[in-house]
Amino acid sequence: MKRLLITGASGFLGGHLYTLAKTSWQIRAVFNNHPPQSLSDEWIQLDLTEQCQVMKCLEKFQPDVIIHAAANSNLDQCELNPEMARRVNVESTRMIHKAALELNSRLIFVSSDMVFDGRQGNYRETDPVAPISVYGRTKVDSEQILQKSEGNYVIARAALIYGRSIIGGSSFSMWIENRLHMNQNTPLFVDQYRTPVLVNNLAAALLELAENNYTGIIHLGGENRINRLTFGKQLCAVCNYDEGLLLTVSMHENKTAAPRPVDVSLHTGLARSVLREPLMNTVDGLRLMCGL
Ligand SMILES: NC(=O)c1ccc[n+]([C@@H]2O[C@H](COP(=O)([O-])OP(=O)(O)OC[C@H]3O[C@@H](n4cnc5c(N)ncnc54)[C@H](OP(=O)(O)O)[C@@H]3O)[C@@H](O)[C@H]2O)c1
């Protein structure tokens, strides 16, 4: 069996990656502060900001592929603490990339649609990046570390990820579902557009990239461009929640520490030609999420 190391395996996306990959790969799943409920020998505690620990672990395991999904992806925390954001998001990527080059491992780096400024939308892999937040800047800086080398790497830019967690972490759709479940009013932006991708769908696409020979940047988003309010309405319709609890809000009326781009929808034509895994639209994704 080939060896796969997953960073961020205790998180939302990483938990799905681990669960999907564990029967076909020999795995090392990295967590830091949140161990999974059922710990096995596959799991390893590692602070990715500690260079020696990271190098030792990688040299011992000799992974064929590394999926680097760990990050601090909280936009506001990153904006308020750029030093921390840089250490966790950029310096960890620098180290993992260095190790991947030394060990001849394929590296799949999970980046974000937040590398764009959101003024255009429908972004292709060739469009220039222009982040407007500290988080977005850390993803661009990480991407550039990989791009400066001749290594065997993929920069997978994920859109907004939705779905239910199976090991840890959380998603914006879980936040919506929790509130609706408790009959609480749920404010959703009407003026921010993304191409949300179901976490199961994204995990399968990343594992396909782990095995094929594509290199370079690739956009992984769902089939449709949508704002959060419309997404919420679809969620209510598909999963049978009360749509009357949804409140329309503008992101311009809500002050957040980090600025939010208006339209970071991703063009996913390249992924559709490279991958067998079909990237679903939100209605199909929500149906799958709700077990329909
Ligand atoms: N969520 C989205 O909508 C979205 C959209 C686009 C791109 N992305 C990217 O997708 C990836 C996964 O996102 P997610 O939502 O699944 O994140 P998440 O649930 O917040 O999980 C983050 C993971 O990173 C790990 N981590 C953080 N700091 C670490 C450190 N110093 N050392 C080791 N591990 C550390 C955490 O480990 P512990 O919890 O054990 O400490 C956790 O497993 C990230 O790279 C994110 O930037 C996310």
Any overview of this molecule?
The strands form 4 sheets. Strands 3-2-1-4-5-6-11 form a 7-stranded parallel β-sheet, sandwiched between helices. A two-stranded parallel ribbon has the order 7-10. Strands 8-13 form a two-stranded parallel sheet. Strand 5, helix 5 (134-147) and strand 6 form a beta-alpha-beta unit. The protein has helices at residues 12-21, 51-61, 75-80, 82-103, 134-147, 172-181, 199-211, 228-239, 269-274, 282-289; strands spanning 3-7, 26-31, 43-45, 65-68, 106-112, 153-158, 161-162, 186-189, 193-194, 197-198, 216-220, 226-227, 246-249. The mean pLDDT is 97. Helices cover 38% and strands 18% of the residues. It is an alpha/beta fold. Helix 2 (51-61) packs parallel to helix 4. It contains 10 helices and 13 strands. It has one domain (3-165, 196-225, 266-283): 3-Layer(aba) Sandwich (Rossmann fold). It binds NADP nicotinamide-adenine-dinucleotide phosphate. Residues 7-8, 10-14, 30-34, 46-49, 69-73, 88, 110, 112, 158, 160-161, 168-169 line the site of NADP nicotinamide-adenine-dinucleotide phosphate.
